[in-house]
């Protein structure tokens, strides 16, 4: 099973009609649309991306899938956007997803960066409700991808030591290429990371 399918399995188990969720790297909108369908018209999905092209693609995907009404789109850096939601939306989100890297078929220089990603993850840890799920997929084969994933791995260890439940999944690959990795972190009622 591909990591994207595994991530969608976790989303399907977690999200219920009326839930609130955030896609912190909307890209072409596949995750945003999947989440918007799961939360339904009573729910809300905020899709964030730093590129207009990604937000336009996400809007088209949401429209095609009939779930634009319960969605909000924002062109922004995810760290700033998520920090701006604190403290008003603290402890209110059911899911926050990150799919790190660059927009497929686009300028590869516009990619997630470790400092901003870490700030966005920290804000996410405050925004999630108890029992809420943080999904982070990192692609480690492109320049900068491995060092960003190492920073995320360290951060995941920190929240685990604070009581979060953290799992990681990596496909077995036969070549020497470094496979992508999916972290699945669940917030407990202990203090935020
Ligand atoms: C791998 S793609 C996401 C794919 C997406 N999940 C999908 O379903 O198509 C990564 C996205 O992160 C975006 N991105 C890069 N830096 C960002 C930042 N600081 N804040 C928000 N989005 C960012 C890129 O523009 C790109 O669209």
Q: Into which percent range does the helicity of residues fall?
A: 25-40%
Count the E strands: 7
Main sheet: strand order: 3-2-1-4-5-7-6
Class, according to the CATH hierarchy?
A: Alpha Beta
Under CATH, the homologous superfamily reads Vaccinia Virus protein VP39
Question: Which fold does the CATH topology refer to?
Answer: Rossmann fold
Low-confidence stretches: none
Category from helices, strands and their pairing = alpha/beta
* Ligand catalogue: S-adenosylmethionine
Please, how many helices? Answer: 6
The CATH architecture category equals: 3-Layer(aba) Sandwich
Radius of gyration: 15 Å
Tell me what you see in this structure.
Strand 1 (20-23), helix 2 and strand 2 (44-49) form a beta-alpha-beta unit. The mean pLDDT is 95. The chain has one domain: Rossmann fold, CATH 3.40.50.150. It has a seven-stranded mixed β-sheet with strand order 3-2-1-4-5-7-6, sandwiched between helices. Helices cover 38% and strands 23% of the residues. The chain is an alpha/beta fold and 193 residues long. Helix 4 packs parallel to helix 5. The protein is built from six helices and seven strands; from the N terminus they run H-E-H-E-H-E-H-E-H-E-H-E-E. The structure holds S-adenosylmethionine (SAM). S-adenosylmethionine binds next to helix 2 and strand 2.
């Amino acid at each position: 099973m591909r990591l994207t399918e595994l991530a969608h399995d976790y989303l399907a188990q977690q999200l219920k009609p009326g839930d609130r969720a955030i896609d912190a790297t909307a890209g072409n909108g596949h995750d945003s649309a999947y989440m918007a369908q799961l939360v339904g018209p009573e729910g809300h999905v905020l899709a964030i991306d730093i590129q207009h092209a990604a937000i336009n693609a996400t809007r088209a995907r949401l429209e095609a899938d009939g779930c634009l009404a319960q969605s909000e789109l924002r062109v922004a850096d995810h760290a700033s956007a998520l920090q701006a939601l604190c403290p008003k939306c603290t402890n209110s989100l059911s899911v926050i997803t990150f799919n790190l890297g660059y927009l497929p078929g686009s300028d590869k220089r516009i990619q997630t960066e470790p400092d901003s990603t870490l700030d966005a993850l920290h804000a996410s840890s405050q925004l999630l409700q108890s029992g809420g799920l943080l999904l982070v997929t990192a692609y480690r084969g492109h320049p900068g991808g491995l060092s960003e994933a190492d920073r995320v791995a360290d951060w995941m260890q920190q929240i685990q030591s604070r009581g979060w439940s953290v799992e990681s999944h990596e496909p077995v690959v036969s070549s020497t290429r470094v496979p992508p990795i999916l972290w699945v972190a669940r917030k407990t009622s202990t203090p935020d990371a």
